[in-house]
Amino acid sequence: MDVIVDLQYGDCGKGKVAHYLSHKNSYTHVLRYNGGCNAGHTIFHKGKKFITHHIPAGVFFGIKSVIGSGCVLDPDQFFREIQMLEEGGVRTKGKIFVATNTHVITKAHKGEDKKKGGKIGTTGRGNGPAYRDKYGRTGVRAEKVARLKPYLVDLYDEWYPHSDRTGEKGKTINILAEGAQGFGLDIDWGDYPFVTSSHCTAAGALLNGLPATAIRDVWGVAKIYETYVGSKKFQPDGEIFNRIGDLGEEFGSTTGRRRQTNWMNMQTLERAIRMNGVTHIVFNKVDVLRAAGAWAVIDKKKTVAFKGEGAMREFIVKRLNSFGIAKSHVFFSESKETI
Ligand code: IMP
Ligand code: MG
Q: Which of 4, 114, 261, 284 is deepest in the core (most CB within 10 A)?
């Protein structure tokens, strides 16, 4: 299994990396491992823009796409998304699955989140209340919802095919695990309470019935600057940050809210690299800083400005090297479609 994990606050371009990897490697499954339809993954496929909230990127390549037990699922949104994909020319039949033990987001969850989520600045999609009920043991699992029946899979049977149950003994399983949100929003490691309610780390992928030894590569995804959407103050003063936000079209793909921006924080990044065991890293939106004509990071609480792109890249590569990440595993990306 390879894992894709967002190293900042979501919206770093995981969808693009998932799309790239599912095209490049031969996976048998793409697994969404955490979160609900608070996520918004923007994917450019064959020149067309798609925004998905639940369904992982594997579906664009006909790979089995699984919504795992670490997620919470809104059936209304799920069916809307299938329709949107079909209308966009993506075949979904027999490709999309939901784990029997995935918890469901109800209308009441959404109503409550819209009413009470303001303090944290949630997406209002019922995510927090659904996880609360899951852990409070009052929730509803997907297996109890009649219209989800055709999509259900038992993850044990799916990950460990054995002849007595599925007749597919010996089949090699190769999973791409696609995370949602990001390390800075993780329920345990984010800035509580300004967090989401799920486990956004690479470890979160394992919670979907997979052994610790399953992980091969961990693809960390970051942006060359940071963005955050929610109610705490994040963006420092200075016109440059609005300019970066404008040039980067930094508006939420789920709620349309303007994202606050800041320079990339090296210590946030280092913490995320260590705790997720990152082996490969993609920095997205390099073109945006180039258009803004400004190159800087925050390192040890100070803003460090660079003369140009080359100097900044060199600084980052050198720092990552000290964390055991080789230059050939560092990607600076400036395309919406690929890394
Ligand atoms: P919730 O996940 O809707 O409960 O929102 C909690 C916090 O996470 C808020 O600050 C949201 O803006 C943020 N958030 C949730 N999902 C995403 C995402 O996919 N991208 C970026 N921020 C998100
Ligand atoms: Mg997003």
A: 4
| Ligand 1 and 260: CB distance under 6 A | no
Ligand 1 lined by 15 (C-beta under 6 Å): no
* Cis amide prior to 211 (ω within 30 degrees): no
Alpha carbon distance 85, 92 (integer Å)? 7
More confident residue, 24 or 8: 8
With CA atoms as reference, report the closest residue to 57 among 11, 19, 12: 19
11-15, 210-214, 251-255, 276-280: the lowest-pLDDT one: 251-255
Count other C-beta atoms under 10 Å from residue 256's C-beta. 9
Q: Is the CB of 261 under 6 A from ligand 1?
A: no
Query: Among 254, 264, 253, which residue's Cα sits nearest to residue 286?
Result: 264
This prediction has a pTM of 0.96
What is the pLDDT, as a whole number, of residue 164? Answer: 60
Q: What distance in angstroms lies between residue 52's CA and the mean position of ligand 2's atoms?
A: 9
Q: What HEC string does 24-80 produce?
A: HCCCCEEEECCECCCCCEEEEECCEEEEECCCCHHHHHCCEEEECCCEEECHHHHHH
